[in-house]
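Please check this:
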Amino acid sequence: MKIFLASDHAGFELKEQVQNYLVSIGHDVEDCGAEKYIQVDDYPDTVTPGIKGLLAYGVEKGRAIIFGGSGQGEVIVANRFPAIRAGLYYGGNLDIVRLMREHNNANVLSLGARMMQFDEAKAAVDMFLETDFTQEERHVRRIKKIDEQLS
């Protein structure tokens, strides 16, 4: 599975750590930026290339992980794009990551970098990548309704 990464300045360091981890375990990773730490960058500019990369590649074949200070702005940007279902994790109970995959078939994970250390982010990333969508009729129906209401 191909994984697209994107971050603003606040998530830059965690993005780099997660990228190194994912490459070390054999994932195909595309770093969509930021390429270097720029304190005055704006998250819509830095997150959008990662989302567009996933869309061009195919949401059914890949996933994206985006990073910001809280992850809030980043998840808002991501969810403005059709076919994107982004969920936010900023620490704590990992069930939220499992459920965003199982119930919502989330294809983007937004991480609040100021809210967690690398080990917690690593656990969330592993959960996000290893958890499958349940394909239960009620979840499929709900996602279809979202898609229909956006068109």
